[in-house]
Amino acid sequence: MTQDHDAELRQSLNRHRAFATFLLILMVGLVVLAYRLPEGPATALLAAAAQAGVVGGIADWFAVTALFRRPLGLPIPHTAIIPAQKERLGRGLGRFIAGQVFTENELRRLLSGLDLASVLRGFLTDPASTRPAAQALSGIMPRIVATLEDGRARRLLIRLLPRMAGGPGTAQVVARALRAMMASGRHQAVLDAAVTALRQGLRGKEDQLREAIARRVRDEGGAVVGWMAGAYTARKILAVINTELDRMEAPDSAIRQAIEAWIIAEIEKLETDPDRAAAFGKAVGNALKHEAVALWLGDVWDRLRAALLADAARPDGRTVQIIESGLANAGALLAEDQGARDRVNAALIGALMALVPSAQGRLAGFVEGIVGRWDSAELVSKIELRVGRDLQYVRMNGTLVGFLAGGVLHLVIQALAGRVVH
């Protein structure tokens, strides 16, 4: 396609060059004709006009040719300007583009009209785009994780987590989570699991508990009383505990309702009492600083890292689904929230504007390097093909304007001379 376009430009240039040359030859022919015609005012006018046309045509031919090559191959100073000043031309062109075209004002105006947030929204809301993007991000996840040194990542987790969870904000987060759990009724499943675990624990340790209770009764009541009531008391206590656990299985049991009331009261305290919230956060922070918890967090990080690496390597893994869902949610947010789009546009434009100063220098150097590496003959050909046709009009205009100016000047001189004579 480029070759065909260059061929069309070359044909057009040749046509205009031939016509400009024809005008120059025509002027030369008129000069010769004027010398062969009988003398008279008209002949003198034709000779003066044609001579001026020849001079104008030759002068403009010389000027146009000197831009690209040496006229007639002669080593005339200040000719073949473009090939001789190739490096200077590239440097000047690069500076012009960087300083006059690629400016902050022009880029800001251009980017403001593009609405980059809408472009990003279109990308994020298109599953055909987000799926490959999610797979690509998931694919580089193992390399990102691999760059994290295990010991450093573990120490960072152990150091930051107590600080993040040790403030009063933790109480607010826990309170909101508990309130949401209570409102949805999911706390009943937690209580069911606790009752089941407690019953299984009692059954597994029933013999040891019965012996411990009986021993405690003998120690407190003496040998005779302990021998008579120890075993009975132990059985009675365990029976009462099991009976209450059975009652707790019912959703409307009094114990469950009491636990719910206590949880609601604690939630309100965490939400409204700053001292209670601060104490809760401090307790959580201290707990996370414990050596056993630190070891547990390190083990959690190891397991999480291994699971992440294994899942990220799968094109249909959970990591890809999470990233894809996150991208889709971001696209939906941009589609629904004009304020979010405005903030994204402002952030993207601000980030790009911060890169402009360094980009201008790189762009100027890039243009200078490209022009500097061009072959001189290729550079001349590229420029001449694109501006040479217009320059041929300069030759045509110089010839025609010279012809007309020569004729007018001859008439003016003749008029002035006639007045002087008379």
UniProtKB/TrEMBL annotation:
Name of the molecule in the record: DUF445 domain-containing protein
Keyword field contains DNA repair: no
Coiled coil (UniProt feature): none
Keywords, comma-separated and alphabetical: Membrane, Transmembrane, Transmembrane helix
GO cellular component: plasma membrane
One Pfam family recorded for the sequence: DUF445
Transmembrane parts of this sequence: 18-37, 43-68, 399-417
